[in-house]
Design goal:
The chain is 47% helix and 14% strand. The protein contains 13 helices and 9 strands. The chain has helices at 12-35, 43-56, 70-73, 91-105, 107-111, 118-126, 129-135, 258-262, 264-293, 309-336, 342-372, 378-385, 395-407, and strands at residues 79-81, 84-86, 140-143, 159-163, 168-179, 186-192, 202-208, 214-219, 230-241. Strands 4-5-9-8 form a 4-stranded antiparallel sheet, with no helix packed on it. Strands 3-6-7 form a 3-stranded mixed sheet, covered by helices on one side. It has 3 domains: 9-123, no CATH class; 139-260, Beta Barrel (Butyryl-CoA Dehydrogenase, subunit A, domain 2); 262-407, Up-down Bundle (Butyryl-CoA Dehydrogenase, subunit A, domain 3), CATH 1.20.140. The two termini are 34 Å apart. It has 415 residues and is an alpha+beta fold.
Length: 415
Amino acid sequence: MTINLEVPHKYDQLIAQAHEAAAAVLRANSRHYDTAEHEYPKELDMLAAVIDGMNEGGAMSGAGASGTGARAGSEGARETGAAGPANRNGSNMATLLGLIEMCWGDVGLLLAMPRQGLGQAAIAAVANDEQLERFGGRWAAMAITEPEAGSDSAAIRTTAVYDETTGEYVLNGEKIYVTSGDRAELIVVWATLDRSAGRGAIKSFVVERDNPGLKLDRLQPKLGIRASDTANFVLDDCRVPKQNLLGDSEIEQSQQGFAGAMKTFDNTRPLVAGMAVGVARACLERTRELLAEGGVAIDYEAPAQLQPAAAAEFIAMEADWEAARLLALQAAWMADNRAPNSLQASMAKAKAGRMGTDVALRCVALCGAAGYAETELLEKWARDAKILDLFEGTQQIQLLIVARQLLGLSSSQLR
């Protein structure tokens, strides 16, 4: 198979609709909900309903975050016919292209979109058919990070103990930085059945948000993406029906436990890369306009060294942006075609996360006082972009994953 990095024409309508929604709803309310942190963005309810309807009708091919995951990715998998394997662009590509446009509008509001959480991607990757029926379509957040377990998910200390008398699992521990944790209907909690058994004992459990054992500790004030609530939870003898354990309860059945859930990130890391691409594009477009107003012309026909320094720097940033965009497209395309993409997903996330932060800050610097003032969204985009280099695996973790795969080393050999 060979990849064509031109955007497929069948997604023209999706991109146009996503861009229109981003401009009319997300960008239009961006500053308000940045200032009014933790206030629920009521404007998103109607937009989420529209996206739900379009997803059900196939118009957006799963272009919300809930359209990701191993099962969703199979919608765009290779089909074999008389002519052999066919290249497909499916739900992962559609989601990526939609997210780029939406994050051009506002990444914080996109993350606050009802029923478009990372938890649904984990459910899609690990759940059995009965669980998919029960939990599908509901707003699900993901609770992985703990005070002593951040980038190393295998260090999770939250415990899950089976109570044979009631047929329930009892969860105890603490979870932090749970995106949409206070607003979601479900929380997918990662916990260990046996701390001494390592990764194979880590499982994911679906916890109803109103479970009395799931206690909201606080909502986290943040540098950026303030429209998206970020919750810290304490699980205090939180009882969960055994039917809410995703996948297999056997400790060594890690393919449907820790390893199965981790495969979720092969699909979602390219999407985080796409978010960074969208924010950076917004920065570049506004910077181009402000440079033009200041009399700086960008000439793509002339060598960069013969142009004003601001123009030369802008051209370099655009080249960096294009490299990140193409890596994200490649990783999403591979997921749609069921090609192993762990390496490419981490490469895309690492490149785009660093590019997004770098481009946003350089754009602020190029625009001077205008870039730093609250009269422009550039300063907000610079704050928003940083999280895209952090969550779903930091820059350093992504580079470590890439190095392990390129060198053929295990996590114990290269730490």
